[in-house]
Write a structure and sequence with these properties.
It is built from 9 helices and 12 strands. It has about 350 residues and is of the alpha/beta class. Among the domains are: about 5-105, 3-Layer(aba) Sandwich (Rossmann fold); about 205-338, 2-Layer Sandwich (Heat Shock Protein 90). Strands 2-1-3-4-5 form a 5-stranded parallel β-sheet, sandwiched between helices.
Amino acid sequence: MSQPHILYIDDDAGLRRLATRALARRGYRVTGADGGAEGLALAGAERFDLVAVDHYMPGMDGLATLEALRALPDAPPIVYVTGTDEGRVAVAALKAGAADYVVKTVGEDFFDLLAASFESVLDRTRLTRAKAMVEADLRASNARLEALLGEVNHRVANSLQLVAAMVGLQAGALPDGAARAALEDTQRRILAIAQVHRRLYASKDVEHVDMQEYLQALVGELSETCLAKVTIVAEPVQLTSDRAVSLGVIVTELVTNACKYAYPDGSGEVRVHLAGDGDAHFRLAVEDDGCGMAADAAPKGTGLGRKLIRVMAQALQSEIEYDPDHAGVRATLRAALD
């Protein structure tokens, strides 16, 4: 390792010479400066590993020199040297940005203390710079990973959109109404999942989905094929992507079922409500004022939708509850945000 280069600022020429020789014996290369103005000029023109500044100097004293040195670009660490043992001087220097201070005494003990302070400050500086480099590398790595994850979400969303389009084409070509309806349900489920990845790609946060925006877009798509009026009131709840997928499938199934079965004449309203529920939880409610559903009623369709709702609720460590006192159907779910 090369010798650390020290700038020693002191108006006492004799002490500068002593310091240069004593510190050289202790492994340091020292450049002396006669006062604050000269020291500041040297520090601005040359790179030093550390600067030692004496307190008592005419004209530009130690504290003024310290302040000016700290204002330099990429300022080196500074050890403050004073001939007084008054605590207020040391406190003032440390508050002004000095890395350490040493009380000036007579004899070799002073230079031992000074060298020990230099070693400690230089070690801390190396650790701080190493930590900053590691953090910068981590930030760059995270940025690359986020960009990669964003691209993955973009491609997944596009692929799911393509699959949904293919399913839709297949459904339109089927003469059998039941089979066509089953494929249309599958298409809606695929699009619900694709919406999550589209949101992740468009957002700066590649890990969480704003459920307010997501459900508004999802419900908007569902309402296009629903004869009933579908409304939504949602708070900006943040969920991880896997939990957003589970909730999106649940909303898709509940809204689709309400659109199919709640209003035989097609007129009515389906309401979706999502809100935070304290203690890091959220609550979802999907309700209608239609013909209702008996607790022991058999599924009107294939029953796959009901199974999917149960499985997705289990993925959220929760379950769907139906309000028996509601005139139509009111399904609610309470689950943790994480």
